[in-house]
Automatic annotation (TrEMBL):
It comes from Opisthocomus hoazin (Hoatzin). Keywords: Cell membrane, Cell projection, Glycoprotein, Membrane, Postsynaptic cell membrane, Signal, Synapse, Transmembrane, Transmembrane helix. The keyword Lyase does not apply. Pfam families: Shisa_N. The lineage of its organism: Eukaryota, Metazoa, Chordata, Craniata, Vertebrata. It is a single-pass type I membrane protein. Residues 36-86 form the Shisa N-terminal domain. One of its GO terms (cellular component) is postsynaptic density. This is Protein shisa-9. Belongs to the shisa family. SHISA9 subfamily. It is found in: Cell projection, Dendritic spine membrane. The chain crosses the membrane at residues 116-139. Regulator of short-term neuronal synaptic plasticity in the dentate gyrus. Associates with AMPA receptors (ionotropic glutamate receptors) in synaptic spines and promotes AMPA receptor desensitization at excitatory synapses. InterPro entries: Shisa, Shisa_N.
Amino acid sequence: QERAGQPLGSFVVLSGANRSGLGEQPDPSEQPPVPDFCRGYFDVMGQWDPPFNCSSGEFIFCCGTCGFRFCCKFKKTRLDQSTCTNYETPLWMNTGKPPSRIDDPLHDPTRDKTNLIVYIICGVVAVMVLVGIFTKLGLEKAHRPQREHMS
């Protein structure tokens, strides 16, 4: 058994090493980071997502995208919220009144015969159905055997 920092064959033994594997070593002179505040925003479906604080354990940074935000623990993946533009109601959600329509000067609603044509076609079909029903009833009555009246 040799001391820490002393060569052990072809290896060097270190003591007190951090085995976190994250690659980020905190600087003891730095202040601990302050939890982020994720601003409220409109997501991709046009729904308002309210603001929230990232202060749950290790998850203290506001991360994600402008349309989907969540809390994470790595500062390098932090979202720069100042670049996002989805803080106002999207234009496509303003459905108060329909968009203005440019009237076609060639279109005259009094001369529109579309409904008249539909009524004529439906009337002809109805008459044909009635003629078919009465024809079938007449043929059945004509081919029925005659009954003799017995007293």
